[in-house]
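Lab notebook page, bench 4
Experiment: in silico fold of construct C2
Operator: M.H.
Input chain length: 350 residues
Purpose: comparison with the prior construct
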Amino acid sequence: MPAHNEALGIRPVLEAILPQLSDLDRLVVVADNCTDETATIARSTGAIVTERQDSVRRGKGYALDYGVRFLAADPPDVVVIVDADCLVEQGTLDRVARKAVTTGRPIQSLYLMEQPANPQPKDAVSALAFMVKNLVRPRGLEYLGMPCPLTGTGMAFPWAILQKASLASGNIVEDMQLGIDLAIAGTPPAFCSESKVIGLLPQQEQAAKSQRTRWEHGHLQTLLTQVPKLLKASIQQRRLDLLAIALDFSIPPLSLLVMIWLTMMGLAITARFLEVSALPMLIFTGEGILMAIAILSAWAKFGRAELPAKTLLAIPFYLLWKIPLYLAFIVKPQTKWVRTERDAVNAPPS
């Protein structure tokens, strides 16, 4: 568990994990560049704590690399990585560890986000978009027998794979990059929908913007730089699974996808009224209908119980909220890891 200044919420996270461990398991917390009581709190719960201080090489990737090297003296069969601000549901650790051993591949748990205590409409839409990305699409890939992306927490790795992985980097979406690297190397991640890790969307507006900026700028950078690499590898290695990963990563974030469609639809309507051609308008109308069906179907099947129908009415406001984020990517994309400010983590119900 990499942890940077997580004193506010790390105790309930650790206390949810400890009962899931056997006598042969170890819970190791990497207190990374901490200036608060993270290490002390973690030790008080019974976790093993190793501390790292490096003012230059900062970020989760470096913390993970440090933790793996710490384990190398007495390596385990499987390493499960969990973020310090996520609650792990009962049974998750055992399921993903067993699946990693059985398949010999990295395993990704279902990772969803809950809305904060006082949610705004955009929080509900954000949770819906997160559900489509981390549940609906991986489920579809799993059904087709294809790999899934790594989403950053609730990940299990056979030791033989993880010890060879390149982890020490300041990549702002190090999990995405790790999944791509492992897939190209011949061990693509698999999805485990029976396990679940829950995060919490930030309550504070600035923290929410910071988190979404890091996620989506990282996604777009990965799309632009890694999709060509995956396509090339899929041809060279003659592997359909790499093509599937490339196509999945080619899909921009849902809000950006809708913005692109709206822009193209506006141009198509303009072309129609200028009597240039009606074909573009017909094509984009059809695409819009298919996209709406996909979103509504995903909500009806997977999100209706927790996200009311009025969530869908907030989508236009969510898109407006995201416009500055995408403009910032064009002007000055985020390339350095920035920690999102945390809200308190509540213990799961007993």
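Observations: The radius of gyration is 21 Å. The beta strands are 2-3, 28-32, 48-52, 78-81, 87-88, 107-114, 155-158, 190-200.
Next step: discuss at group meeting.
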